[in-house]
Amino acid sequence: MHLPISNEEPQIMHIDLNSCFATVEQQARPMLRGKPVGVTNRISKYCCIIAASYEAKALGVKVGMRLDEALELAPNLIMTETDPPKYHYVYKKLLNILSSYSDNVVMKSIDEGVIDFHGTRENINKRELSEIGYEIKARLINDVGSWMRCNVGIGPNRFLAKVAAGLHKPDGLDIIDHNNLIATYKSMRLTDLHGIAERNEARLNSVGIMTPMDFLNAPSELLRRQVFKSVCGDDWYQRLRGYEVDQHSSGITRMVGRQYVLDIRRPSDDEVRTRLSYLCETTGMKLRYRGLCARGIMVYVKYANGDSWYERKMFKSTFFTNAEVYRRATLLFNKRPRHAFEREIGVSCYMLTPSNMSQISLLEDVNKDIWLTQAVDQVNNQYGEFTITSATSAKSKNIVKQKIPFGSTQYFELLLKSS
Amino acid sequence: MDNTVMINRDVNIIAYYFRGKDKPNCFPKRMDIDGRQITFTETGLLHPTQKGKRMVHVFDMTDGKADYRLEFDAEVLSWKLVAVSDAQNAFAN
Fold this sequence. Notes:
The complex is a heterodimer.
Chain A: E1 12-16, H1 20-28, E2 37-40, E3 51-52, H2 54-58, H3 67-73, E4 78-81, H4 84-99, E5 105-109, E6 112-116, H5 129-143, E7 151-155, H6 158-165, E8 173-175, H7 181-186, H8 198-206, H9 212-217, H10 220-227, H11 232-240, E9 255-261, H12 269-289, E10 292-303, E11 308-319, H13 322-333, E12 342-354, H14 364-383, H15 412-418
Parallel strand pairs in A: 2-4, 7-8
Antiparallel strand pairs in A: 1-6, 1-7, 2-3, 5-6, 9-12, 10-11, 10-12
Helix pairs in contact in A: 4-5, 10-11, 12-13
Chain B: E1 5-10, E2 12-17, E3 26-33, E4 36-39, E5 42-51, E6 54-62, E7 67-73, E8 78-85, H1 87-90
Antiparallel strand pairs in B: 1-8, 2-3, 3-4, 5-6, 6-7, 7-8
């Protein structure tokens, strides 16, 4: 394959709210503005930072860092816990703004969205995309608040739009097209490219590709056969030249589950089981929210000494009620080795099929289970999640917190109900 | 570290209500608590949230010394002070 650099007019816009959770917290609480802020799911000594403000990042704090490590770098770091309704509000506002320019909008995650202007330029009176970009920034400030900032990147494909959005953080607007593509690559490192982290960098380095320019000039054959050893090599060849290869969406859910790092260093059996029960309950809620039932279940445990264990099982019958998820998970959980204290536990359901909840069974017991679950779900919808909860998980209700979905927003509404 | 103090108490609020299409149409101006008056100067974020089927409007406010989280229950029309951050500044004379 040999392709020139695409000279198509840039029509993809990538909008990214960097440090989204921390920026939203600073927007909500003016006294935090200008200070190093970290956001985590649940504050504890070993919690992990899931978002850091620009002030914290300037002091060396990075996302994924543990709190004790971050405090060494930034002793004045202010840690706050996540507040999903706030982020959902900003997400909805951002979606509304983006959707007003084109119906071809895809939210890649909570804090970033892509507008494809192909075929819809007439709707915006053929205005310049850079002008639209500045307007989006202004509307975000007007609709949400004065502290909100976003990066806008415009490019001929999704990859280059994303790269452009990362060029001048936190409030940049950049366009990459065939005129400045090479100059942009010359100013970057390999790991600045979205999708190239340490491992891919090592793969590229092993065949002598050390810079984005080397990467651009590498033949597709080399990338396919030696570097990526799959069609991914061809995709990268096209992606780097501005051709679209990332316009796909996967709406298939293959697995539903929850995992949790235990809040106690030396948990008793009862304490682990009550948290497992809670995870099973939220997994059951997720299944029903998606209108699915499962046939397979997997339970895993990571131990304090670094060991890990998992067990999985397929059943003949499908299940979706909280009690069934917990019963089947317990079957596997009882088989775990008990040579060390548990550090992390997780439950996943797989082999998912559309739910048969509306199907009346010949077996009276099955019907009773379904009706009970439906009644409990109705009460919880009316009065808030976990208004009725199983006794085994009641103790964990205030301890285990729902995670913020970073990559996907498919459970956002459900998360809000339980937050 | 975050120094938010949970309060969860009903409070009296004097609020301005005004017409607006897309903008917030309520600004809680003054709060009376324990004989003190706190005058808000800025809204940080105003967002609705659901508690079961009930709609609650959350106001993150500041008086320039501390941040306050207020909840307005649209069903029973009551205000609640949920939390105060930098509470040592909030209630200092």
